[in-house]
TrEMBL record:
Protein name as annotated: DJ-1/PfpI family protein
Superkingdom assignment: Bacteria
PANTHER family per record: ARAC-FAMILY TRANSCRIPTIONAL REGULATOR (PTHR43130), DJ-1_PFPI DOMAIN-CONTAINING PROTEIN (PTHR43130:SF14)
Gene Ontology biological process terms, A to Z: regulation of DNA-templated transcription
Domain DJ-1/PfpI: 3-184
Organism: Quadrisphaera setariae
């Protein structure tokens, strides 16, 4: 079974928040292929900007620091996914984007897991997808998340929290740990460990 991973891209997305998990799922596919298996993941890059910005008509965003990232599909046209991943960055605009929030709400019932990296938790909260279970975000934004959404149980000093259908991670590099954990959970610890080794990344599943 190949799972579709919907990875949200938006202006001022944190580069490693988005590209770190992308790399994990991409490398997991390569490692699986070496073993003669079908690719376990299809990563779909979902662009929050409606404007056409690429020569082929696909949308693009400007990540933090100016890096230009192309998307596969506009958020309004995005399908539901097995895994939905919302990275962080400067999220004020994307957390108020009706098309993004509608896609997340539409995706939630069919998804095995909806996850956030870093301040992506603010976007999930804006969509009403977080509940009484503990959540986390970048250490610098814990108090802001509590203030903006006082009903949430916000915790720090964790790399990530996984409740099965909902997962959140701490900041930036913690997205690597969460993505590797999801590989382990969905496809097995052996593939996750081999992926981490291929990436030369010291990973220990929590």
């Amino acid at each position: 079974m190949t799972r579709r991973v919907g990875l949200l891209l938006f202006d001022e997305v944190e580069v490693l928040d988005a590209c770190g998990p992308f790399e994990v799922f991409s490398v997991a596919n390569r490692v699986a292929a070496r073993a003669g298996a079908e690719p376990p993941f299809e990563v779909l890059l979902v662009g929050a900007r409606p404007e056409v910005a690429e020569d082929d008509g696909s949308p693009a965003v400007r990540a933090r620091g100016g890096l230009r990232l192309g998307a596969d599909v506009r958020v309004g046209d995005a399908p539901t996914c097995d895994v939905v991943l919302v990275p962080g960055g400067v999220v004020d605009a994307v957390a108020a984007d009706p098309a993004v929030l509608a896609w997340l709400r539409r995706s939630r019932p069919a998804a095995e897991v909806v996850a956030s990296v870093c301040t992506g938790a603010f976007v999930l909260a804006a969509a009403g997808l977080l509940d009484h279970r503990p959540v986390t975000t970048h250490w610098e934004d814990l108090d802001d998340l509590r203030a903006a959404h006082p009903a949430l149980h916000v915790v720090g000093d964790v790399r990530y929290l996984d409740h099965g259908d909902l997962a959140t991670s701490a900041g930036i590099s913690a997205g690597l740990d969460l993505a590797l954990h999801l590989v382990a959970r969905l496809e097995g610890t052996e593939l996750a460990a081999a992926t981490a080794r291929q990436m030369d990344y010291a990973w220990h599943d929590a």
